[in-house]
Write a structure and sequence with these properties.
This protein has eight helices and twelve strands. By secondary structure, the chain is of the alpha+beta class. The relative contact order is 0.07. β11 and β12 form a beta hairpin. It has three domains: about 10-150, Beta-Lactamase, CATH 3.30.450; about 215-295, Signal transduction histidine kinase, dimerisation/phosphotransfer (DHp) domain (Helix Hairpins), CATH 1.10.287; about 305-450, Histidine kinase-like ATPase, C-terminal domain (Heat Shock Protein 90, 2-Layer Sandwich), CATH 3.30.565.
């Protein structure tokens, strides 16, 4: 059955609609035939019952000899006594024995539908059998009416349904096929366009139909996805180029220092040359660690998450920074709880402080507080401020891009590769928070906001 079932949406829709219409037609046709037959049968029975009552009244009054020709719609009349003797009958039943061999013993009315041929026909008859008391005893009156019109109407209706049903079914299948084909044409155009897009053609977009239906929304969603893929590809290529450049510079310097050390024969100069080489090796090590961390963040690898006191994390980070050029003044609030990984949050604080230390003149300040978020919850807010040159308003988003330096020569002298703030923002996003550069009276002001679910339950 699975192999026989259509595989395309268009064919499945057509077959499904056809099956539903076919079932509905079958039920409706059966009901129509039954209702039509019941109505015609009721009309025929009414005439026969009226004739039977009339003849039974004549028999009860002893006036059967006054019986006249039957009413319109009545085919025959036969009156039989309790001994089975025919007392009266219409001319078309002359010489015909009693229609029912068993005689009733008490008055009453019975209805029968017989297929008999007292009139030489093949049609059915509806017979009303009415038994009544007379001065001569019990008499039974048989009045029959032909169901020729009922059978003819049934046959005509059945033939019309047999011809019209398949035509209607074929029309439904054709219309469904055409309508679904026209509805799915934009989907096929989208599929064909997407099939031709390669990693070098991410600038292409799928056609958006003028309708405002689900297909149009699908096309818009697909184009938005292609926008993200194109942006991701651009960032990936830029990242590779910047990483190659950043790795090439220390590698080149390291090779030069090693070549000089190899060429110099004076052992007194070797410690200085080796010390410079070790500094470049350390720079390479930090850069490779940052690149590895960014790769893990881009892959959205899961991290262990626990309920943490952010104030304790801040104090631990500041406590290990005894060799900072500018002492850090901290004002951490107590009981500011967040959900996340302790190592990652410590890395965010470290990167923010490293950035402030590179550009600060005489002041680096760290402020931690908890504020209401306007939705009944709390938000942990961590601010790192310095009195350096600050960040221009037009560059407050660009500083979070990878390998971005506003002052390239100065940042390189201070050992920055332009990855610290990018890593901090990615880690903040992984914790459901944000990291932004905001207006400050003097210097730079970086603000980290994280959801604060409250203290852990005991």
């Amino acid at each position: 059955m699975r192999r026989l079932w259509p595989t395309t949406v268009r064919a499945r829709a057509t077959v499904g609609a056809s099956l539903v219409v076919a079932a509905a037609l079958a039920v409706a046709s059966f009901a129509l035939l039954r209702l039509l037959e019941a109505d015609l049968l009721r009309n025929a029975e009414r005439d026969a019952r009226q004739q039977a009552v009339t003849v039974a009244g004549l028999a009860a009054s002893g006036q059967l000899d006054r019986m006249r020709a039957p009413l319109d719609g009545v085919d025959f009349v036969q009156v039989v006594n309790a001994r089975g003797r025919v007392l009266r009958a219409t001319p078309n039943l002359t010489g015909v024995p009693p229609l029912a061999p068993v005689r009733p013993v008490r008055p009453g009315t019975a209805l029968h539908t017989w297929r008999i041929r007292p009139l030489g026909g093949e049609h059915r008859l509806r017979v009303v059998e009415l038994t009544t008391d007379t001065p001569q005893g019990i008499v039974t009156v048989f009045v029959g009416t032909s169901l020729r019109d009922v059978d003819a109407a049934d046959d005509t209706t059945a033939a019309a349904l047999a011809v019209g049903g398949p035509l209607l079914l074929a029309t439904v299948a054709l219309v469904t096929w055409r309508v679904t084909g026209r509805a799915l044409a934009p989907v096929e155009a989208i599929r064909a366009e997407v099939a031709e897009i390669t990693d070098r053609d991410l600038h292409r977009r799928v056609p958006v139909p003028p309708t405002r239906d689900e297909v149009a929304r699908l096309a818009l969603t697909m184009n938005a996805t292609l926008d993200r893929l194109e942006s991701s590809g651009i960032r990936h290529r830029r990242f590779i180029a910047d990483a190659s450049h950043e790795l090439r510079s220390p590698v080149t310097v390291l090779r030069t220092q090693l070549e000089v050390a190899l060429a110099v024969r004076d052992p007194e100069l070797w410690p200085e040359l080796i010390g410079g080489a070790l500094e470049d090796v350390e720079r390479l090590q930090h850069l490779c660690a940052d690149l590895l961390l960014l790769a893990r963040l881009d892959a959205a690898q899961p991290m262990a998450s626990t309920r943490l006191d952010l104030g304790a994390v801040v104090r631990d980070v500041v406590g290990t920074r005894s060799g900072d050029r500018v002492p850090v003044r901290q004002r951490p609030a107590e009981g500011v709880w967040v959900e996340g990984g302790e190592l990652w949050l410590a890395r965010v604080v470290t990167n923010l402080l490293d950035n402030a230390q590179r550009f600060a003149d005489r002041r680096v300040e760290l402020v931690l507080r908890s504020t209401a978020d306007g939705r009944g919850g709390r938000t942990a807010v961590l601010e790192v401020l310095d009195d350096g040159p600050g960040v221009p308003a037009e560059d407050r988003e660009r500083i979070f891009e990878r390998f971005t330096r506003l002052d390239d020569s100065r940042s390189r002298d201070h050992g920055g590769a332009g990855l610290g703030l990018a890593i901090a923002r990615d880690l903040a996003a992984h914790h459901g928070g944000t990291l932004t550069a905001e207006e400050a009276p003097v210097g730079a002001r970086l603000v980290l906001r994280l959801p604060s679910p409250g203290p852990p339950t005991p």
